Amino acid sequence: MTEFPLLLLCLFCGATVCRAGIxxxxxxxxTSSYDFIVVGxxxxxxxxxxxxxxxxxxxxxxxxxxxxDNGTDSAVLxxxxxxxxxxxxxxxxxxxxTSQDGLNGRTxxxxxxxxxxxxxxxNNLVYSRGPSEDWDRIAATADxxxxxxxxxxxxxxxxxxxxxxxxxxxxxxxxxxxxxxHGPLMSSLTSTPSELDHRVINMTTKFGQEYPFNLDLNxxxxxxxxxxxxxxxxxxxxxxxxxxxxxxxxxLLNTQVTKLxxxxxxxxxxxxxxVAQNETAVAFTFIxxxxxxxxxxxxxxPQILLLSGIGPSEELDKNGxxxxxxxxxxxxxxxxxPIIFLQWEVNGTTLAPFLNDEDAISAVLEQYExxxxxxxxxxxxxxxxxxxxxxxxxxxxxxxxxPSAGPHSAHFQFSFIxxxxxxxxxxxxxxxxWITVSVVLQSPTSRGSVTLASNSAFDHPLIDPAFLTxxxxxxxxxxxxxxLQTLLTTSTWDGxxxxxxxxxxxxxxxxxxxxxxxxxxxxxxxxxAAISSATQEGGVVGPNxxxxxxxxxxxxxxxIFPFAVGGFPxxxxxxxxxxxxxxxxxxxxxx
Length: 591
Ligand SMILES: Cc1cc2nc3c(=O)[nH]c(=O)nc-3n(C[C@H](O)[C@H](O)[C@H](O)COP(=O)(O)OP(=O)(O)OC[C@H]3O[C@@H](n4cnc5c(N)ncnc54)[C@H](O)[C@@H]3O)c2cc1C
Ligand SMILES: *[C@@H]1O[C@H](CO)[C@@H](O)[C@H](O)[C@H]1NC(C)=O
Ligand SMILES: *[C@@H]1O[C@H](CO)[C@@H](O)[C@H](O)[C@H]1NC(C)=O
Ligand SMILES: *[C@@H]1O[C@H](CO)[C@@H](O)[C@H](O)[C@H]1NC(C)=O
Ligand SMILES: *[C@@H]1O[C@H](CO)[C@@H](O)[C@H](O)[C@H]1NC(C)=O
Ligand SMILES: *[C@@H]1O[C@H](CO)[C@@H](O)[C@H](O)[C@H]1NC(C)=O
Ligand SMILES: *[C@@H]1O[C@H](CO)[C@@H](O)[C@H](O)[C@H]1NC(C)=O
Ligand SMILES: *[C@@H]1O[C@H](CO)[C@@H](O)[C@H](O)[C@H]1NC(C)=O
Ligand SMILES: *[C@@H]1O[C@H](CO)[C@@H](O)[C@H](O)[C@H]1NC(C)=O
Description:
By secondary structure, the chain is of the alpha/beta class. It contains 15 helices and 27 strands.
């Protein structure tokens, strides 16, 4: 007779409108116990909450510090052309890094999404799964072959699907249909390839030995999380559809998880979350009868673990927190990717004049508002990207070893941008045609940390990416800049590339000075609750993402990656979230 209540529920849903509860304060919720509690409605958390609530008899509470992503102020989130502009707004946590020794002691803003969808609602839309070697290395690190590239394929297909750009232009030959799936997250190519794009692609045919063309997922045409003329985030793709069709999922917004609690004083079973809306607000407790899933991201997750007494005991003592589990690697092993911009004046057509013309920009935004068409409806700033390696005989590799995931994984990355993007210490010219190539260190060996500033959940933690603090890292960025200068001397660029805005950066010392003054975060932190094998002492979570030393608690977000990703992290976070959802369902026999 177990089918009966399910059937009744479905009939009821068909007849009326079945809706989840959306709450903006903890006291609005009348129940205090759920099967699962998911902390953070970000990239990973929205996927997990949506997948777990597919089973109608399972109750799920999803708790998010930020607010709605579809209010009156949400255009900055949804319009593809505005990607990046939510930084420093109400949708950003507004973190700042600690002073960076490798960057002349500078601090810098460290954006993270503070809204439904988390960072997938504010990021730059790039969709790149990275090399297969990333996954094979995770499998090796976790000593669990189910994380291998071959074995994670179903989760890619469950997450993503390719869609046309708004203008339905043919993108045949620019991507490989066979490697795309049938999931709710939409990805697409640009609607309007630029002259710069054509030159980059031409280079990969003319100079295919040095700069090979990849049809899909790697260097070549860029794919972005845009569909039906708007950003596709974990919130638009997963969370809203679930909220609008289910009764067993509750979303609590504008509320921060401040601490996790255990069943009893002597037990190591985590089953409670304490929440509050601000430092002085009344605190509430919710209980999970099955599991708690931490998806607060690479900054929020280690902060919550530390506040709950799961971390290096010495550091916990210093902040007056009782140690539950002495777990030395919580908040450690942080890896992020620094980026700099190099600009050239060009003899050709770029977006720079358009982007310097406020009236033209108003016109495209107006057109978008009218019928969701035009330049604003797709990614336009950059549409090609290159992942490159140091030469195999590079002294850097000989001296320091190869930190990338394998022989097909990048050490550095170029994005070809169709306008002038300035570094923090530059002022952009207001006339002329310009291109920018960003140089990113893909495989850093520097290791930073997230530590507590105090025992208050409402104080930002100390975020130290430790950028360019290793000889390999600064050496690789210098080699990357030189490699870019060489690339631009190939005949593809004849008659197009003019003088560099920076003047000639020739010697290693000149390049190093430039890089240390200009580098900022690419906003890809990982590693602060890293996965490790079941038997290994180090690491924070085991192969099934369960936090070591306790029961009832998993981490599902970018914190679990043991190494900086070889592609762009959102695609890899989605894969982790889909696989984790399947693992949790398996544990609890949910179909
Ligand atoms: C500006 C920007 C641009 C980027 N560009 C790209 C790109 O183009 N391509 C790409 O692949 N990646 C990009 N990234 C990185 C990528 O978006 C992230 O790596 C990924 O989204 C992280 O997913 P996550 O689930 O780990 O964390 P998030 O998506 O950040 O989710 C964490 C969620 O937890 C919530 N939270 C945190 N603490 C608490 C708490 N105590 N209580 C309740 N809720 C809490 C947060 O508000 C947030 O919603 C970018 C990131 C940023 C910020
Ligand atoms: C981030 O800063 C902006 C600008 O000062 C502010 O409006 C916003 O509320 C801040 N975000 C948070 C989460 O406090
Ligand atoms: C693109 O195709 C869709 C589906 O066939 C159609 O609804 C839409 O009007 C087309 N858009 C344009 C700009 O051609
Ligand atoms: C690129 O190559 C194609 C054919 O090989 C040619 O038609 C096109 O003009 C070239 N474009 C540029 C910008 O060089
Ligand atoms: C915002 O999203 C929620 C959940 O999907 C929905 O109930 C609400 O109507 C939406 N609000 C607007 C203004 O679209
Ligand atoms: C803190 O939260 C409480 C209840 O949620 C609210 O009434 C109060 O205004 C908030 N205080 C501040 C300073 O935001
Ligand atoms: C959308 O609006 C613009 C004018 O703002 C118009 O030129 C264009 O034809 C319209 N497109 C569609 C598909 O309606
Ligand atoms: C600029 O491009 C035009 C047309 O492609 C070409 O004739 C001219 O020589 C170029 N100028 C320079 C300075 O390269
Ligand atoms: C930069 O180098 C080029 C080519 O070597 C040279 O022609 C030019 O004068 C140099 N510019 C500066 C500002 O040194």
